[in-house]
Design a protein that fits this description.
With about 60 residues, chain A is mostly helical. Chain A is about 85% helix and about 0% strand. Chain B is globular. Classes of the chains: A mainly alpha (about 60), B mainly alpha (about 260). At the A-B interface, helix 2 of A face helix 2, helix 3, helix 4, helix 8 and helix 9 of B.
């Protein structure tokens, strides 16, 4: 452990604004990327399902 | 060999195999990134000159590596698409671009933030920084070009050509610190020579780099699958795959 206490860890020896903003932006972008990919996947699957369901019910009405 | 390439080029086959591979790369990414972050932030010793601000290296270097590697992957995918007309290669190239742009931004931002305590300035028009900014514009250009055509095939070809031409910038970024006098230091980390850093600083960096690469592979597999669904939504195998799920869902609703 390079720090004696948790508050020292947060302070980063006076470099807190630099270290935490660089790490924060990186973490935020990685998390946002995964979140976006999940939303994208769900929307595409739901869209295809909805279309198939509509086609199914149209076919059902015609019979 | 050719049979394998054609199999790889089949969206249906890729959709199946990528589903199996994906969890392994996600698991590796999470494991490596968590370990590397804890080690780099809390356990690696502070630099004797830069103090704790050097801990920015653990996001700056992996992001810069990935920014360049993704562009090369995009150019290679573009070449494969242009020469062999393999659509999956184009889909992969399409989904790589935004992550590449994000990683270039992370490299530039973390570098700027790091520059304030270390160099006394957040920006200099020196060769390394400028060539990285050009890389960001190249990514944005590739993304914009894809959106600028009504025909998907034209968009794919234009984006492939820009990626293949733009890849010239990668050696310029790499050798910028040797060719010109720059504020940016030469490579502190190479795969071919012994590290100049002590092991307890260098090992977390290796772990972070591997973590970023695993993340890139996992995300590319995931988003290529989505891109396959988007482009092949009217194909029979997609209908069958999803229809089965719809039938099941309806069966459950009526039960």
């Amino acid at each position: 452990m390079a720090f004696a206490s948790f508050s020292e860890f947060l302070a980063m020896g006076g470099h807190a604004p630099y270290v935490w903003s660089a790490w924060g932006v990186t973490a935020l972008l990685l998390v946002a990327t995964v979140w976006h990919a999940r939303v994208e996947q769900r929307q595409l699957l739901n869209g295809i399902k909805r279309r198939a369901r509509r086609a199914n019910s149209l076919r059902g009405n015609a019979q | 060999m050719w049979a394998f390439i054609h199999k790889l080029g089949s969206p249906k086959w890729f959709y199946g195999i990528s589903a199996k591979l994906q969890p392994w790369f996600w698991a590796a990414a999470v494991l490596l990134l968590v370990t590397g972050s804890l080690w780099g932030l809390a356990f690696a010793p502070a630099d004797y000159q830069q103090g704790n601000s050097f801990r920015i290296i653990y996001v700056h270097v992996p992001a810069a590596f990935l920014a360049q590697s993704i562009f090369i992957s995009m150019a290679v995918s573009g070449l494969v698409f242009m020469v062999w007309k393999i659509k999956v290669a184009d889909m992969a190239a399409a989904v790589m671009a935004p992550l590449g742009a994000a990683m270039t931004f992370v490299a530039l931002f973390s570098g700027a933030v790091w520059g304030v305590p270390t160099w006394g300035t957040w920006w200099m028009w020196d060769a390394r920084l400028t060539s990285m900014l050009i890389l960001l514009f190249l990514y944005l250009g590739v993304i914009a070009l894809r959106g600028a055509f009504t025909s998907r095939d034209s968009a794919s070809r234009a984006a492939s050509v820009l990626a293949m031409v733009g890849v010239i910038n990668i050696p310029i970024i790499k050798y910028s610190v040797d060719w010109w006098y720059t504020l940016h230091q030469p490579a502190s980390f190479t795969l071919t020579s012994r590290p100049t850093m002590p092991t307890e600083m260098w090992l977390p960096l290796v772990i972070m780099v591997l973590g970023f690469y695993s993340f890139f592979i996992a995300l590319t597999l995931m988003r290529t699958r989505s891109e396959i669904l988007r482009r092949e939504s009217s194909k029979r195998w997609v209908q069958e795959l999803v229809n089965g799920q719809v039938v099941n869902a309806q069966a459950e609703e009526t039960r």
